[in-house]
Specification:
With 437 residues, the protein is an alpha/beta fold. Helices cover 38% and strands 14% of the residues. The protein has one domain (2-432): Alkaline Phosphatase, subunit A (3-Layer(aba) Sandwich), CATH 3.40.720.10. It has a 9-stranded mixed beta sheet, sandwiched between helices. Strands 3-4 form a two-stranded antiparallel sheet. The structure holds zinc ion (ZN).
Length: 437
């Protein structure tokens, strides 16, 4: 499973046509593809948890980034700033200034979402009940890392978002925080693969923009670039960790998540498509920053290609996003020019996939039942979606009729039942690292 936050066919298809995305081209030509319909509110932690559990936020309980700001529903989690024009998700990517951490110290009434708050089993809980091993890298709302038969490298995103400088961290390995991985000792294996923004290769950064010319840009434009560097460092970290663990510790289902397309699309849409709305972008800005989004897709395509190279005949590759993107113009938010739209992507390639098939009517809830069917694992009848039959090769579907069970066992015990002590521990650590005041 290759998750790309915010990937959209509208961007992918033209780039495939000009030969810019060879891995996507292969997956689209040889697999089944379609639009994966998202839901509202479109806060990524809720959406990726919906994908992982096959049930709605009402049941899995993860609605946004935080809980506790006047309730634990989406109004708290998905709209931390209340009045933020970007709605569900702009606040987190465009800066912490309007977040609940405003004014310095973290509020005791607002807490980031954690895996301990999830009320429905995710695929990393379900598959081991049927003897399948699972590896998860960077998936949202996986901290603290839960026990599974396999491994979890968790994402810390919520902590860093709410109380950091507002950098668009889609997940970072921070030394000294407990339960970043399961098993705990895996941290020693992945720690050396961590990439920081100032450790990014110059040759890599040069693909996205000319650093010398960035210095001439406005404060807002430079803020976009700075946030982008953080996001690329996070994705590069999970790219390296993912490949290493994929090779070193084979599992039955491997899932990796990349957040940078979403960050680049929020910030650089107006430079890539300066006439999409009345943005009033200068020619020089467009010349300097206009290729960031397409180069980011190319970077993700290369990462996808690394898994394609490793794919065996008995493997299936699922590529998906939680939502797509559209242009948006917020006069008081110059660093946001793209915003979520409901049309995400799904592609299923390899074993069991119907070559050249079109997947119609797919939604986030259908991903898990489809993966379970491909893996010959029983589907709980209380899952809310359906197997995407359009995606499956007809002979495979005939030979692998879906089996059903009433329900799955609940998720295993959380690694630390005393969440508040974990919060304190993490907050203290982040403070000491200068992430928060
Ligand atoms: Zn977003």
């Amino acid at each position: 499973m290759f998750g790309i936050d915010g990937a959209d066919w509208q961007v992918i298809e033209p780039l495939v046509r000009v030969g810019k995305l060879p891995a996507f081209k292969r997956v689209m030509a040889g697999g089944a593809t379609g639009i994966l319909r998202s839901m509202e509110p479109s806060a990524s932690p809720a959406l990726w948890t919906t994908i992982a559990t096959g049930v709605n936020p009402e049941r899995h309980g993860i609605h946004g980034f935080v809980v506790g700001a006047g309730g634990d529903r989406e109004d708290a989690g998905a709209h931390p700033a209340g009045s933020h024009p970007a709605g569900t998700h702009g606040a987190r990517e465009t800066g912490g200034a309007t977040g609940p951490g405003q004014g310095g110290s973290p509020s005791t009434t607002v807490r980031p979402v954690t895996s301990t708050m999830r009320r429905a089993p995710a695929f990393w809980n379900i598959l081991p009940q049927y003897g399948r091993k699972v590896g998860v890298v960077g998936w949202l709302v996986t901290w603290p890392a839960e026990p599974t038969d396999g491994f979890v490298v968790s994402s810390y995103l919520p902590y860093l978002y709410q109380w950091s400088t507002g950098r668009p961290l889609k997940g970072t390995i921070v030394s000294g925080i407990p339960h970043q991985t399961f098993p705990e000792g895996l941290i020693d294996e992945v720690e050396p693969l961590k990439v920081k923004p100032d450790g990014l290769d110059q040759a890599l950064l040069d693909r996205f923009y000319d650093p010398a010319r960035v210095a001439r840009l406005s404060v807002d434009d430079r803020e976009c670039v700075e946030g982008f560097r953080w996001s690329l460092a996070c994705d590069e970290t999970y790219r390296r960790i993912g490949l290493k663990l994929f090779d070193a510790h084979p599992v039955d289902l491997f899932a990796v998540y990349f957040g940078g397309v979403d960050v680049a699309s929020h910030r650089f849409w107006k430079f890539a498509w300066p006439h999409a709305l009345d943005y009033r972008v200068g020619a020089e800005e467009t010349a300097i920053l206009g290729r960031v989004i397409e180069e980011y897709y190319a970077w993700v395509d290369a990462a996808l290609g690394e898994y394609l190279e490793r794919l065996r005949p008995e493997d299936t590759l699922v590529v998906l996003s939680d939502h797509g993107f559209k242009p948006v113009l917020f006069p008081d938010k110059p660093t946001t020019s793209g915003h979520h739209r409901p049309e995400g992507i799904i592609a299923i390639y390899g074993r069991a996939a119907r070559p050249g098939g079109t997947i119609d009517g797919a939604g986030l809830l259908d991903v898990l039942p489809t993966i379970l069917a491909i893996m010959d694992v029983p589907i709980a009848i209380d899952l809310e979606g359906h197997v995407l039959k359009d995606a499956l090769e007809p002979r495979f579907a005939l030979a692998h009729a879906a089996r059903f069970v009433d329900r799955y066992q609940d998720a295993g015990a959380a690694p630390d039942p005393d969440a508040s002590s974990v919060d304190d521990n993490v907050l203290q650590r982040l403070r000491s690292l200068g992430y928060i005041n």
